[in-house]
Amino acid sequence: MLSFEGVALHRGGALILSGVTLRVAAGEVLVLMGRSGIGKTSLLHAAAGLLPVSAGRIAVRGRRAVVFQEPRLLPWRSALDNAALGLKALGVPRPARRERAASLLRELGLRDEDLLKRPHALSGGMRQRVAIARALAVEPAVLLLDEPFAALDAGLRAELQQRLREAVRRRHLATLLVTHDVVEAVRVGDRVALLAGRPAGLLPPLPLTRPAATDAAVFEACAGLLRRPGVAEALGLLAQARQPSPRGWD
Ligand SMILES: Nc1ncnc2c1ncn2[C@@H]1O[C@H](COP(=O)(O)OP(=O)(O)OP(=O)(O)O)[C@@H](O)[C@H]1O
């Protein structure tokens, strides 16, 4: 379980977030969205313990793990050793940690011949699978994901979103996912919370209904979310739509 109560945050001397109250239950994927620079990553970093809060309280029940947009792997270590890193820090013996890491890497779609490759020999998608495996390996109760698939192409993103969703459901993790991608929100999330205003606060979270796996159902769910009052504005989409393009006004 992860909860924020009346949280305020400063960055560079400026108050960027205030009065943020939110609870992410075990087994729930809460998607955090809002326009660029609003404070999504800062809030996630505060939940990860990487940034102090200026006011309020963040409570984490159980272990937490973080996945960043870049995989942040050790270049001189194999995929297997990278995925097992957190377990090493926890003092899990080598055979047990390699076994658990290998099983997670397979669950996330790595083939056996990839397990001993170093990061430079893996694709971007494989590297991010290793980063997710490394996070899941420590058996967290709370998973914090900061745009984990933003650098991947659309097909791969869809596959990894599906695998992530299955992995967090199976483990009953309280998951906070920061993303700019509305498709990702409806594919992975149970609820979406939007940051808006300055300093930013949280709009009341909206439930997401799980769409069928077809593209049409996913796009219909996205359109439904964007039609909800305040959502397009909070994502900065209406302001963008009024921007002139090189061809004139869109
Ligand atoms: N290291 C830092 N020092 C000072 N200010 C920072 C720092 N990092 C971020 N900020 C500021 O804090 C505010 C929130 O940034 P943050 O990265 O949390 O927003 P975001 O919503 O995650 O943005 P994006 O969607 O573009 O990633 C921004 O105004 C940003 O300029």
TrEMBL record:
Domain of life: Bacteria
Residue span, ABC transporter domain: 2-221
GO molecular function: ATP binding; ATP hydrolysis activity
Family matches, as Gene3D superfamilies: P-loop containing nucleotide triphosphate hydrolases (3.40.50.300)
Record key words, sorted: ATP-binding, Nucleotide-binding, Transport
Keyword field contains Transport: yes
Entry keyword annotation includes ATP-binding: yes
Family: Belongs to the ABC transporter superfamily.
PANTHER family to which the protein is assigned, alphabetical: ALIPHATIC SULFONATES IMPORT ATP-BINDING PROTEIN SSUB, TAURINE IMPORT ATP-BINDING PROTEIN-RELATED
Designated name of the protein: ATP-binding cassette domain-containing protein
Organism: Rhodovastum atsumiense
